[in-house]
Amino acid sequence: MKKIIPTLAALLTILVTARLGLWQLDRAHEREAKAARRSALAVKQPILLSEGVPDNFVELIDSPATVEGVWAKDKAVWLDNQVYQGQVGYQVIMPMRISGSHMHVLVNRGWIKATNDRRKLPVFHTAEKVDMVKGILHERTPRVASVGKQGRDGVLWSEVIPKSYSSWSGLAVYPVILYQVNEARDGLIRDWPEPDSGADRNRGYAIQWFALAITAFIFWIYYLFRRMRVADNT
Predict the structure, then answer these.
(1) Helix (H) or strand (E) segment spanning residue 134
(2) Which residues contact 112 (CB under 8 A, 6 or more apart)?
(3) Main-chain dihedrals φ then ψ at residue 89, nearest 5 degrees
(4) Is the dihedral of CA 158, 160, 164, 165 positive or negative?
(5) How many Å separate Cα 221 from the centre of its chain?
(6) What are the respective helix, strand and coil percentages of the chain, to the nearest 5?
(7) What is the pLDDT along the chain (234 residues), one digit of tens a residue?
């Protein structure tokens, strides 16, 4: 029984590491498919949010969209710990009440530098009348370093999810966040980074797993030849 244990261990190692390598390749293909989808959506006609959001809203993620309405600036929240060109600041998430509707859509209006006093939020301009926004739809904001016990400290949040925001604000909001891309004289910066598919990173992990599988195979073969030589000499 002891003689077969190394063989079983080697086979298990090879199978597991090879499977993990294949899984990483599958992840790379998925990421490439998502990147191709984003590129295809970028050239399509923007969705008019005034016409509503379907139940299968996930299919709209990464799509361009436009909305017209009035800002509910008293319900804004600030995404904390956002760094832009080495400077710490916030991203401003503000709801817009859609014209002719009781519904709101959350808009990530952009980045602004933090003040030296954390208790004092920076100032920016918000239109008082009907405004128009063009942007890209996202499902939520990414999570950053937590603030407070639940990732919130008043209006400073570590992430913004439409459903959670609706419960907090009492507003009826669509389950998407519109990242604004059109220019506006409001003091906010909208230099959104191009999304990286991450496929190359997954391929790198796959190579590492396959290398481990090959190494385990080589050691197994070496062990078998060594056993055969020992057996021949006895």
Answers:
(1) strand 131-138
(2) 89, 90, 92, 122, 124, 187, 188, 189
(3) -160, -150
(4) positive
(5) 44
(6) 40, 25, 35
(7) 566 777 788 888 889 999 998 898 888 887 777 767 767 666 778 888 887 776 777 778 888 999 999 999 999 999 998 999 999 999 999 999 999 899 999 999 999 999 988 888 999 999 989 999 999 999 888 777 655 545 777 899 999 999 999 999 999 999 999 999 998 889 999 998 776 657 778 888 889 998 998 998 888 888 778 777 766 666
Q: Which two tokens stand for residue 29?
A: 């293909």
> Residues 179, 113, 126, 102: is their CA dihedral positive or negative?
positive
pTM of the model: 0.71
Torsions phi, psi for 222 (to 5 deg): -60, -40
